[in-house]
């Protein structure tokens, strides 16, 4: 059985795979090759390199392991037509992403961006507008693995957490839950609005102008899910007209963000170039999910961790 990686793990991560699964033929590449794909039974990929044309060559392929949480760039229809099982690494991003979100929140609350600017100007000033995180309210869109982890950290700082998902079904580390239908009514209570929603037809432009109008003028809006959540023109208008106090954006409708986008120039916007999940332990954590799944697969068990429903987009 041939396992084809379209990226090269570090030697210290690669060697245990070869030791633990000596019966398998591993191929580690720095990109996707149709020639190698023709021979692969299992594909390990970040997902963005796979096209519908590639799938035509993957005649032996039975399982795709995606070392990423997002699968929206994959050729879903072609994969489903072939009946190829897809699983991913949902959950491994929760630590770096939650830490990134908390870092941004604390920086804004304690006026760190203002301090950095003062330092650049060599200007001693005590006019910082600092507030406390404690006793504030955070509304978290998509309280799954990542959203629940940031909820846990925020609760430790004395923050009330409101989770929001499609159904309003209970989620970990949320003091209360609402559904998408109740979102507009809940927004006036939120000091911080955080989205970690995936890209689906239902989440596309879920937030509209009326939602930003409903937010506090001092609210911190954070999008760490996918850029389709809000029309960028609507977001820019909300910032320009001071409907919200601050925006922290890790994702955008079109990436990379155009150099002429107004979002670069707002003093109350932080542009994070889709790096909040980056970590030196990323591949390590991916393989911690892949290896137990590979063991199950070799026993004929297809009930793997994080099996994806491509028709739903997650």
UniProtKB/TrEMBL annotation:
Pfam families: 2-Hacid_dh, 2-Hacid_dh_C. Residues 25-301 form the D-isomer specific 2-hydroxyacid dehydrogenase catalytic domain. Transmembrane segments: none annotated. SUPFAM superfamilies: Formate/glycerate dehydrogenase catalytic domain-like, NAD(P)-binding Rossmann-fold domains. The keyword Amino-acid biosynthesis does not apply. It comes from the Bacteria. Keywords: NAD, Oxidoreductase. Belongs to the D-isomer specific 2-hydroxyacid dehydrogenase family. This is D-2-hydroxyacid dehydrogenase. It comes from Lysinibacillus irui.
């Amino acid at each position: 059985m041939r396992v084809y990686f379209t990226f090269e793990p570090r030697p210290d991560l690669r060697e245990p795979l070869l030791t633990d699964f000596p019966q398998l033929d591993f191929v580690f590449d720095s990109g996707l090759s149709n020639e190698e794909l023709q021979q692969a039974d299992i594909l390990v990929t970040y997902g963005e390199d796979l096209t519908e044309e590639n799938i035509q060559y993957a005649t032996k392929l039975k399982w795709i392991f995606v070392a990423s949480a997002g699968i929206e760039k994959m050729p879903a229809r072609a994969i489903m037509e072939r009946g190829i099982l897809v699983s991913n690494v949902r959950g491994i991003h929760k630590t770096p992403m939650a830490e990134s979100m908390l870092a941004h929140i604390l920086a804004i609350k304690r006026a760190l961006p203002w301090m950095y600017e003062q330092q650049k100007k060599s200007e001693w000033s005590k006019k910082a507008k600092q507030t406390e995180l404690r006793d504030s309210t955070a509304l978290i869109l998509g309280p799954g693995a990542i959203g629940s982890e940031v909820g846990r950290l925020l609760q430790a700082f004395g923050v009330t957490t409101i989770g929001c998902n499609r159904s309003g079904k209970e989620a970990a580390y949320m003091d209360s839950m609402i559904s998408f239908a109740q979102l507009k009514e809940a927004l006036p209570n939120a000091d911080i609005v955080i989205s970690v929603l995936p890209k689906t037809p239902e989440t596309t432009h879920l937030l509209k102008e009326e939602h930003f109008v409903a937010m506090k003028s001092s609210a911190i809006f954070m999008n760490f899910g996918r850029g389709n959540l809000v029309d960028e023109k609507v977001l820019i208008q909300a910032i320009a007209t001071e409907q919200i106090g601050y925006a922290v954006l890790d994702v955008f409708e079109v990436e990379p963000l155009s150099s002429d986008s107004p979002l670069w120039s707002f003093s109350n916007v932080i542009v994070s170039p889709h790096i909040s999940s980056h970590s030196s332990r990323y591949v390590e954590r991916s393989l911690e999910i892949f290896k137990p799944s590979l063991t199950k697969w070799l026993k004929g068990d297809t009930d793997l961790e994080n099996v994806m429903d491509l028709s739903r987009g997650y």
